[in-house]
Records
---
Amino acid sequence: MASIERDQPGIYWQSLMGNNGDGIGGNCHRYDVVTGARPDGQHGWFLVDYGVKFGAGRKGYAAEFASPEGLLVHPGEGGGPEALLLTHAHEDHLGAVRHLLPLGYRCPPVYARAFTAAMLNKSLADAGVEKNRWPEIRIARTGETVEIAGARVSFVAMDHMPGATALHIASDQASVFHTGDYRFDATLPLGPRADPAVLRAIGQAGLDMVVSDSTAAPVTDAPVTEAEIAHALERIVADNAGRPVIAGILGSQLDRLVSLGRAAKANDRALVLSGRSLVANAAVAQAGGIDIEAAAGTPLLTPRQAAELPAEKVLVVTTGAFAQPNSGLGRASRNQPGALSITPDTTVVIAQREIPPVREAQAAMVARLEARGATVVTAERAVAAGYGPIHQSGHAVERDCRLLYTLLRPRMLAAPVHGNAAQITANGRLARSVGVPVLALDRNGAVVRVAPDGARVIGVQPPERIGARERTDVVRQLPKASPGQGRDSHFPVPVFSYDRLDDAGAVVLRSGLETAQGATRPKRPDASAAPRVAVHHTAAGREGSRSR
Ligand SMILES: [Zn+2]
């Protein structure tokens, strides 16, 4: 396939994944910068986010992500992007890095806020990636501007999760604002917060294009603030005085953890943290200067520290809002050894809405908890009982989208991303409603050039993706001594095989890729193959090419 020339002055943007007809996630974007001052041929480029797509399990994949072929290079090779910029620490924005490195690719220097960087390192440690493969990390502060690939890139705080940042990318030719995931909620406890004055100033200085999160754009309800959620949680805990209360959240919902901490404190309960990912994420945050204990006004206790306290004087926060089998609630619902105890007087609060990919699993978990006698308050039941919402999407709803476009007032284009076709269409409609022209691309691959004379699509290159299949026939233990990995060295790490897929998720080549971390690699007929992407022929005659 002929490559699309990016040789005229301007900023070029291409969504490599994230605009998927078949679901949300795997966000990955390419930006090329050709400055007018640069002589012909000089251009720089970088990537924004490299995440995994979830909900692929029905096809047997634990994760899907944009193919690194033609994008990243191998150690010792020249070329490749100058940087990988991360907007925040959710898996659908950085979760592919743990796969790219074992596949033998070199990750360029990573620019990220401190918490995001710490979460990336934790992800690599959890995956057992050898430390000498970890990328160089350059910590970016809120409001900081750095020179990358010929552009000035500023990191702008957004409301989504700790460390969430938008990117303001400006060259002498054009400027683009890449929102990352965002919403507007001035009551999120773990700052810094999105500042409308900063966004307005960016718009007033002249902005050409906004690349913006579409996930919750179709939601017309008024946004719910975290302060309202904290109040509802406080009342639920109050109404369950004298009973053990366990709350289930996602491991990454640290703002919600603070709200639960405040609810515990207001009801004179100690806050106890349980569940591996939640405990680890809270520790990463606390070590990185995100002071959860100060925000909650109460210390985070381990179950051991709270062992002497009566069960009705603690609020246990654990994982399992999506009913994951190994989560705190998942294990408790099955009464597994070492799991949290569920007694007939226990109240379980699930501070997360049901969502389609896990709805059945959530319902089954609730039924198991109830079968063991627990009273379960789901987000839906909390609303029905008059407490109000105990969950809110972390993404911009209709009102937030309109506010963003009103503040930024891009001259040329809004390019909705991060969503399925309906979500992207809804986001585009909102941009038009406040007078912003729209380029609604509901699939990946189009290359848009933004230049002083306008913005337009200059070509479309449907990108491939990689499907990661977790192997059940091989088990890999980390070596006994893995200094600095910061994890239990005896914990088995999953091993994957990788298929090449097209942009619709159909298989192009099965198991065409294998990891380079050899210890547990199964024997292959061609044992001499270098630890890099193998080029295989398929029945259809397509073959791998690293020179796209
Ligand atoms: Zn996110």
---
Amino acid sequence: MPGQSRFADLEPLLERVQKPIQYVGGELNSTVKDWNCGGHGPDESELTVRWALMYPDAYEVGLPNQGVMILYEVLNERPDALAERTYAVWPDLEGLLREAGVPQLTVDGHRPVGDFDIFGVSFSTELGYTNFLTALDLAGIPLHASERTEGHPLVIVGGHASFNPEPIADFVDAVVVGDGEQAVLELTDLVAAWKSRGRKGGRAELLAQVARSQLAYVPSCYEVDYHPDGRIRRVAPKPDLGGVPWRVAKHTVTDLDAWPYPKAPLVPLAETVHERMSVEIFRGCTRGCRFCQAGMITRPVRERSITGIGEMVERGLSATGFEEVGLLSLSSADHTEIAAIAKGLADRYEGSQTGLSLPSTRVDAFNIELANELTRGGRRSGLTFAPEGGSERLRRVINKTVTEDDLVATVAAAYGAGWRQVKLYFMCGLPTETDDDVLQIAALAAKVIETGRRVSGQRDIRCTVSIGGFVPKPHTPFQWAGQLAAGATDARLRLLRDTIRADRRYGRSIGFRYHDGQPGIIEGLLSRGDRRVGAVIEGVWRDGGRFDGWSEHFSYERWMRAAAEAFDGTAVSVDWFTTRERDRREVLPWDHIDSGLDRDWLWEDWQAALAEQEVDDCRWSACFDCGVCPEMGTQIEIGPTGRVLLPLSVSSGARQRLSEPPTAVTSVSSDSVAEVGQRLT
Ligand code: SF4
């Protein structure tokens, strides 16, 4: 019977694997619905649309993923749908599953992934592609979409990597581009209607409907022609499929307050990368950092209101028992009401164990008042900033408009206020970069230490420099740039390391962490590759490639071997896809995926980068005509709202500071917070 739990088959294998707890499910706030929840009896089981959702990495990385958590909850709220989760199994369990003939299972109901209607996979990074193939294979789903039949789930992918899905085009049925929460509901409607019509027209008809509806990109509905020199001539809808669009547009959710998910975040059973609850305080970023794909593809900025944030924090904490709340976004200190949010939350939770954090803070948006609110009553361990480029010249190229004076003034204020450690993130291999740009990182770190010692009067000041290779990404102004070769990246990083070590005065106070250049080249191949790269991914997977995002599993040699085989006799190579600069006219593999960004605007911004010209943030200044808002019918959604975030339940420490009598405040319910907030101010 489809949908039966296979836990009895899995359980005996678990005592032979590392971390068996990650496969058992049953987390707080997880859901296992009846397999036939959409109907009222076995005959009506067809009325349910069932999703198996995967984050293609280990449980400890996948469970905290907000995207999967949101879709899981949004789908399970529907009476006629169910969603369960699955994560990548480590090679030890993979071997045992194969031996025992047990398929890829969900962690919720331990049901075979192959029994579901839809297998939905969210890719934050391209290095999850081999794990995706493992899951397909273990689930008994043919790797190639063309070989799937009526009995197989639809394989639908999404996430940031899906803005160039071409390298995995052969393995997927459809691709949701952009925000997923509304799209999965509409896809559920479409599949439900098709099922209720007795699956009329079969799988091919369903996919054609998906393609025509523009809900998702269906790679099999398009064909790609190439020039003899390897470049793409064009990507076009197949002529026999009427109504399939030439370009597929991203989905954009507006009014984040209408989507307060996850309402009840999952609480992991095993240790995970983030032991905290996250509340997304805004989506999108218009700072215009030219290297940042996330910022470009999530435009425009859409802020959640201060009251919406307050309610999500309160509800989430009581649903989970977490003691830390991360205020999540691409640049959290940029929220127009961040000061009031931080103060309001610090007031509300003062005296409790609840801590607050901003996972990403720009140097120029940071201020000590904000940091003080976030660490009120807590330890001031470390602050992290990301200047990204070592020299001011390079920061103009990447449009990260932070001057050295800004950075030094910020760290001086931080050290003066009691912090002892600062972490600085940089990239190596940025367009136009020279050795000198990178060596300026050493000088900057020394200046940070010197400033810290002077301001604090202490010698135990530390600065850690963390640096990785830059990978040019689709839908950014750097999509045309040549990537720095792995050897050149490594040589530049060695030079920097030796320079820091040779600094007798400050070198010992500077920590240095770097990633070598080889994984970046493979990420570059997968990011800017086209359909021909699919053979490389499959070759690596067949050669044992798994968990490529983990340094202990990643093998550059395996990737290069598979690429040499796949590209043998063709005009393309790994270098062709990575270190080659493209010209304006070249058809890029992702040109038919519409992120809303105007191609001419991106090109002009690339030229502005080469001319070291900066562009302002449209959140605070005029529109720079990137194309997103008119193209997508959206607009920036920001405050200030003028509202305040009031404590819903007041701790004794916070009560002292409120000007109104405590009874007026303690009677506030979460439903009426906005209204009472107006009254009290
Ligand atoms: S269209 Fe204008 S306002 Fe909208 S994101 Fe682009 S630059 Fe900003």
---
Amino acid sequence: MFDPVKRADMLRPLMLKNGKFLISRIAGTGEEVKEDEDRIAYSTYFKFKWYIDLPEQLSLSPAELWSPNLLGLVDNPLSSSLRDIKKLEFQNPPFSAAFRMKGKHGDPKDYNRAFTIQLSGCNYNCNYCFVPPETNACNPNFSKYFSVKEIVDYFLKAREDFNEPINVVRVTGGENMIVPEFVIELYNELEKIDGTYLWIDTNLSATKHMENVENELKDVLKRRNVGVTGCFKGTCKEDFSLITGAQQSFFDDQFKAAKLFLDWKTDLYVYLPALVYGNSVEQKIDGFVNMLQALNKNLPLRVEMLIIHEYPAAKRNMELKSKEKRPIPLTDQRKVFDSWYNKILPKYYSKEMLSKFCCEVPL
Ligand code: SF4
């Protein structure tokens, strides 16, 4: 098991060189969107995704989309297919962006398509990772350096070409907080473009690099058109280490990073992959909820549990890490979802709080 802080230090000079940032090539990874195939300029390095994608949801009016009936799990989750278990697979970005920009008058469909930039380089080595290992390793054959200005030009071109709104720019990875300068520079460019929302993913491991640019980063993170999703890996230190390949002692660093985001007035959301090892699922989830509550009493209500699909790259990672004795857990993910949403959260929160979208939950 490795030290992810040392790994981040090694990766940083490869991810940021001469004022340009290393961006993963999406083409050829199986992650590109089919419809984009003829838009080579974008789909080679950037990708687009719809977050509300079910036809019956896309046809709803904004008021209908804000109904609490769309929250939580479908009835009988344990006998449903995993793919369909959540009524809404993702609230972020469409709902979070709409809410931050226009409150509940906002239309989530205006923020449903995200122009996604994937930085190459991650200091974890997760066994479920959706990114192909070579794409995530600062490998020059699978990535290219771009200035922020060049990236924003691609975004503007995409906005002109698509006949539906693209108002969200998502920065994912890799771990982008190893080079937080990217987020700062990108926001400063996006600020000049009306109506954009910046969504930042992080694995909550790179506080040192965040603190090095504290003032500029804080200034970006507190803006209304910025949201951050911190992805916790596992509900306890043992599971964290099996999932990420990092030493168990770094489990607590995730909470320190989340605290830093909260202290800096970030609109913070949490992802939790539905991966729990062993039989004590409820006990582990309960313990994790308590750890989040110690940071902020409402933080568990801002969690979106992630379905771990066997996408082509994820399948390769699962097979590779299985050989390193880090297979993904055998626990049925539906059981993890059921425990989180139907058993543990109702133990701590009222019906009224449970019927809020994550973005409505005050921190
Ligand atoms: S899942 Fe995220 S944190 Fe984990 S290795 Fe992949 S990019 Fe890094």
---
Amino acid sequence: MLSYRHAFHAGNFADVFKHVVLHCALECLVRKPTPLLYMDTHAGAGRYALDGHMASSAREADGGAARVLAESGAPAGVGHYLAQIRSMNPPGRLTHYPGSPEIARGLLRDEDRMVLCELHPADHAALAALFAQRPRTQVLASDGLAALKSQLPPAERRGLVLIDPPYERAEEYRLVATALPEGLKRFATGTYLLWYPRLPGDAAAPMLKRLGNGLSAPTLRLELALGPAGDRPGMDGCGMLVVNPPWGLEAAMREALPWLAAHLGRRGARTKIEWLVPPRAN
Ligand SMILES: C[S@@+](CC[C@H](N)C(=O)[O-])C[C@H]1O[C@@H](n2cnc3c(N)ncnc32)[C@H](O)[C@@H]1O
């Protein structure tokens, strides 16, 4: 059963973190002229009205995207993401927030292909309508982790795969820990972004341990914690593994993440940028 709806959370701190990393990674990749595949295994609805009936009571974006939009002096990686958010909103207001497929569409070229998987019927229908006019785009009502098998390797031999499950079932951590290395076997040079929550009890730890031991490609671990460990209930931080990070991403993150921590976090907010699997020395 799919109970998670991303519209309740759109634009929150976790979206800002995830979408800044995604934006920067794609910016690095599109510097090369050759076409690529963008695959989103858990794509959501693609775009969210923040005054819609699902978001209005919560407005999680007020502690996320709205907060960073009000700041000046953002480093380039964050600034380009903010410019994309501003371009789809009235001046000085945040009424709509882009999901990961829309963030990606803003950076991709006409020759780049998109494969977007979304299982929730209503979100799939919204996503299919939003991308109906884009050539070279498939919107699949398929299990995104299973689709890694059918879609990889891409004909382009270049690409980025975003894996962004809701983790509403504990087994999703285990499924991801199996699917990502299998995807990497099929498409060894691809860039993979895997988002995970930081929760009390550290539910993601066994998955990260398995991936740290099992992945065969350089993997960067990025994290944002909004405050000191354990002083708040619920999700108080999140992270992203970046397998085969494109050149330039690590440097961009060293500027972007401390800025995000300073503007989204509390006293004691922290960031982590380290190699889960270091690049092999030549
Ligand atoms: C965290 S949200 C995705 C947010 C989106 N990636 C973004 O950044 O805007 C996770 C989405 O995955 C969908 N979903 C859950 N299980 C899925 C599966 N096995 N395959 C594809 N989509 C799934 C949910 O319906 C939900 O819309």
